[in-house]
Design brief:
The structure is a single chain. It is elongated, with a radius of gyration of 18 Å. 20% of the residues lie in helices and 40% in strands. It has 182 residues and is α+β, with helices and mostly antiparallel strands. The protein folds into two domains: 32 residues, no CATH class; 147 residues, Nucleoside Triphosphate Pyrophosphohydrolase (Alpha-Beta Complex). The chain contains three helices and ten strands; from the N terminus they run βββββββαβββαα. α2 packs across α3.
């Protein structure tokens, strides 16, 4: 395969690129959503033995589901930032928990939807204690509408089994962790 031509066709909050690719002597057009990579954190509070999750409204899926959906902590990796640094930053921003770097490890990475998006997800597992929570932490204005919840691993596994985890990154990371818990 050879990329013959590539150009941006839209740049706003999202970026769309179009390419002409030579594949087996045939030219084909492709489009992709050029996305920043992201870190995802499966967070366990060791004091309560509960997973820390978010429930939030997502406009892009409003046509299919109106209620808040369960998600693991996640966010884009800023320029110059490592996936690990983004995981630690996003955890604090979204939950108020400070992760000690000795208590977090990368499990794997995967592409969110390689048929149209360039986004790679870096999946982490981290642990915190009650004392790691900043009592003065408040969500930024852009994060309003996020509800932080803590649930037992068994409850989370039931949500997985019953099809109530609808977010792919949370589902994949949850399945991976389910195998670790047994």
């Amino acid at each position: 395969m050879e990329i013959l031509k590539e150009k941006k066709v839209y740049e706003g909050a999202l970026k769309v690129e179009r390419a002409v690719i030579l594949n087996n002597d045939k030219k084909r057009k492709y489009e992709r959503l050029k996305r920043e990579n992201a870190s995802v954190v499966c967070l366990l509070n060791r004091d309560t033995n509960k997973l820390v999750l978010l429930k939030q409204y997502r406009y892009p899926i409003h046509d299919q589901i109106e209620e808040l959906i369960y998600e693991m902590i996640a966010g884009k990796i800023d320029e110059g930032e490592s996936p690990l640094e983004a995981a630690i930053r996003e955890t604090y921003e979204e939950t108020g928990y400070r992760i000690n770097s000795a208590n977090i490890k990368q499990l794997f990475s995967c592409f969110s939807s390689p048929g149209y998006s360039s986004e790679e997800l870096f999946i982490f597992y981290a642990t915190v204690e009650n004392s790691d929570k900043d009592p003065s932490h408040k969500l930024s204005e852009e994060d309003e509408g996020i509800e932080t919840i803590e649930i037992k691993a068994d409850t989370f596994q039931s949500l997985l089994k019953d099809g109530l985890i609808r977010d792919a990154k949370t589902y994949v990371a949850g399945l991976f962790m389910s195998n670790q818990w047994h």
